[in-house]
């Protein structure tokens, strides 16, 4: 294999909404490299359905948005982070409009606002029910006209590198298309690698969302936070084929959840019924499925009317029809699936981690906004706000001197017949680190994953084994965090 060395001013690992926003918000005079594991658009951002939360109505207020966020997060959020990001939300929407994102408008020309679970007011701007796709298409068009931004698709990050002062100043990668290893030096390194939902066998996430960014940061000493809080989305289509998320807005607009007998049941669990926060709705559905001995419940949106479904939820309607289900006249089978990591790499409100030179933004990061459970549509908001604020910080901190990297740690490895599969890891995670947890299961997961971590170190370091080693580290860290929190809180629910 060939090796190489190259330099860039800003290296962004991840080309979803957070990474792309950062790249487009930096000065055009800066040289930027944007790594991704696949060709754009990739990651979870294009899959986001609901939209972006922002206070834009006279009936709403910033204080209400803050209160809703804190309530959904089980009062575990950082109030300063919540206030800072919520206050920046209207400017984030303005920036998206400047990038020519086609957000839906009402007949009077104002931005159309919808409501989702946990929100006390209508405050979700959206592009029908495919907001992430519309946003990313617009931003990718802007990227194509930015000569200072170099996209590097099909590249796998293997390890972060530090200089003689301990600052992160580069990354070792494997270029899958060129078939070569390379080290990229950078003045600023930003992790925007997304979440870890695909460590679970039932997930709404893309297959690339395996938590490798968390492990990359942890290995260089970055502080992690709230990793145990994995949000499950309550209404994922339970049918053959890949998991498909049915947007929160379907319930926000008045959709009903029905048990096996066709009766609404959410009011038995929470007075907000279908509009309760996601963690409550997910656990309620799980409880109802256990009670009825079924694998799903039903979502009924027929009463919303064909015109409303066609206008505001065309993607859900299309996907249902593709699988033989018609939202206009059928009950839709739904069940919870792993959806969002509320925790991650601890950062401040400029995206800086606890390790000098290393930033983290988007789902891989933990600003403290989400607390123990993310409020719907606060994630796209955080991506845009943190991408823009990190850009301001990076632009204002141009290094005066570049120091050489510390030599990479060369671990010896031998060829063995040991093979640890992702599907085996997903099965352990789904069973023991899922929606409902107990001490014995968490301990079993921790022990199993630890044994696999030890085994992987005896295997020759191919790119695939590098990736599996990172995934095992993240699963082990997740199990540790869940075991260390004995009481239920938000998305972390302990049966015992």
TrEMBL record:
GO terms for biological process: 'de novo' NAD+ biosynthetic process from L-aspartate. It catalyses: L-aspartate + O2 = iminosuccinate + H2O2. Residues 424-494 form the Fumarate reductase/succinate dehydrogenase flavoprotein-like C-terminal domain. Pathway: Cofactor biosynthesis; NAD(+) biosynthesis; iminoaspartate from L-aspartate (oxidase route): step 1/1. Residues 10-380 form the FAD-dependent oxidoreductase 2 FAD-binding domain. The keyword Flavoprotein applies. InterPro entries: FAD-dep_OxRdtase_2_FAD-bd, FAD/NAD-bd_sf, Fum_R/Succ_DH_flav-like_C_sf, Fum_Rdtase/Succ_DH_flav-like_C, NadB, Succ_DH/fumarate_Rdtase_cat_sf. Its main location: cytoplasm. Keywords: FAD, Flavoprotein, Oxidoreductase, Pyridine nucleotide biosynthesis. It is found in: Cytoplasm. One of its GO terms (molecular function) is L-aspartate oxidase activity. Belongs to the FAD-dependent oxidoreductase 2 family. NadB subfamily. This is L-aspartate oxidase. It comes from Alcaligenes pakistanensis. The gene is nadB.
